[in-house]
What we know:
CATH architecture of the largest domain: Alpha-Beta Complex
Order of helices and strands: HEEEHEHEHEHEHHHEEEHHHHH
Number of domains: 2
Structural class: alpha+beta
Helix content: 40-55%
Number of strands: 10
Mean pLDDT: 89
Amino acid sequence: MNQQKKNLIIFFILTFSSLEQVIGQAYQISLLTADPGDELYSAFGHSAIRVLDTENRTDYVFNYGTFDFDTPNFYGKFAGGKLDYMLSVSTFAAFVAEYDRQGRGIKEQILDLSAEQTQFMIEFLQINYQPDRRYYRYDFFYDNCATRIRDALDLVLGDKLVWKDEVKESDEKTFRNLIDEYVYTLPWADLGIDLALGAVIDVDAKPLEEQFLPDYMFESFARAEIQGDGPIRPLVKETLVIMEFPKEEKSMGAFNPYWIFWLIAIIFTAITFIGFKKKKLFIGFDLAFFGLLGFLGIVIALLWFATEHSATKWNWNFLWAFPGHLVLIKGLWSKTLAPWVRKYLLFALIMADAAVVFWILGWQSFHPSLMPILLILILRTNYLYYNLGKYRLTTS
């Protein structure tokens, strides 16, 4: 190769490198963090990436938190953990307008990426927005709108990205604790979540794992540094408040499972006491109670064994909300007492006691409002076990 050709190759390399520098410098990459909303679907906040082109004056938001309602069998796929989310793109103005309409604030963290890193991030987003790559299997804890952004940044920066998260024993929180921070004012939703999710979320979340929540990722980004490509610098160059709304003091509504379940427990205690005095069983109440627990047990079993949700496995609510309780209804309704009925009552009692032990030992945290339900179950299985053969069956 003669010198002229060598010079020409060097010229093109230098020109291309300079062009990459210019392209990278024209863009600004930011993390957008939206405040939690009032509804369950928005209660945990939201994260997105802003790409601002200062030269061509384009301003887009890349959003990993969207899904298509027109997906065939939408609700079936959602329940089965088979619903795909997708990367979507909108203008920054449209993104802000949507959250303004919802009354939810937005914070922006401008990232201090080099021109090369900026270009890499843009190319990554463009490639992942291709129709055959934009869809992904959503997982609330490990693969969502926030974690996708963190993972993209990990890919772009590699070992140059250093998370400055110190682990303190006093700060350790389980995944369930982290969720509870956002839904404690939505007691029925909180109850539903605790019923559906198993013991797999009752483990301490590592600082990096806490980033499945946008607020926690915002804080982690604020502490993170870029090292190894020059002077150490913070990952976030500047933090801006795009939009802010007054924080309303939220409180739990009067209609909540805490007092309602205790009221039900008092009613069942009174029924049991009266039944003992009058030598009656009042089976009708048990038919309704065990029927509800049985149907709930079927739902828990399906979430555990028939879905791809990772967080619904090993759900020990199954110990007290058991599908077999539906079979008990037939035994209680029958005019003749089958031998297996008392054996099943003893089995149900042991299962309920085991649930309490699991709770005390911390193997799974049950929703606090369920304590009176467990007490009812223990009370009625005890009462029926010892008195079912002695008292006249009645459905009154």
